[in-house]
Amino acid sequence: MYFSYAVLLSVFENLIRKNADNHNTDLEQYIESYQFLKEKNIISLFELKESIVTLRDKNHKTTRAIKDTEKKIYDRVRLIDQAEKYLKHKDTYKAYTKLKRNKQDTFYNEYTAEIILFERAFRRKQNLKYIQMEIRNRHFEE
Q1: pTM metric for this prediction
Q2: How far apart are CA 123 and CA 86, in angstroms?
Q3: Quick one: DSSP state of residue 1?
Q4: By C-alpha distance, which of 140, 142, 132, 137 is closest to 75?
Q5: Is 89 exposed, middle or buried (0-12, 13-18, 19+ CB in 10 A)?
Q6: Distances (CA, A) of 72 to 22, 57, 108
């Protein structure tokens, strides 16, 4: 079915005139739709559908780009968090490892949280290096 440009615009013009006194939100939508059709020179229903598909595709690509960016941010925040824990508790862990075995238990009991956080960050250190490499690679690809 083919609608002419004049028919599409006249439909919106009639809707606008008919609802001009009602002050409802539909009127704003009619006006926006009318302006969109005029701006894009859409003269048929087919062109309107084509335009909708194009906008939907752009929206999908933009949404995908946003999600990718959010993932990168999340990865970088994790990287920073692990690096901070590693650096913050490095000296405590170093002191722990330098103690003789018989004093390590007491020290460990006193600094358990710090030692565990450091060990977890240390185990993830290889992952951090991998993440850093990935971030650099992604940055250079962009």
Answers
A1: 0.53
A2: 10
A3: -
A4: 132
A5: buried
A6: 48, 23, 36
Q: Is 89:114 a contact under the CB 8 Å cutoff?
A: yes
Q: How far apart are CA 47 and CA 52, in angstroms?
A: 9
Please state the domain extents for the chain: 68-141
Phi/psi for 55 (5° steps) reads -65, -40
pLDDT tens string 114-131: 988 888 887 776 666 666
The encoded tokens of residue 73 equal 């941010």
Residues 48-92 have pLDDT tens digits of: 889 889 999 999 999 999 999 999 899 888 878 888 888 888 899
Q: How far apart are CA 127 and CA 133, in angstroms?
A: 10
| DSSP secondary structure string for all residues of 11-60 | HHHHHHHHHTTT--HHHHHHHHHHHHHHHTT--SHHHHHHHHHHHHHHHH
| Cβ atoms 56, 50 nearer than 8 A | no
Instruction: Provide the 3-class DSSP secondary structure of residue 111.
Output: coil
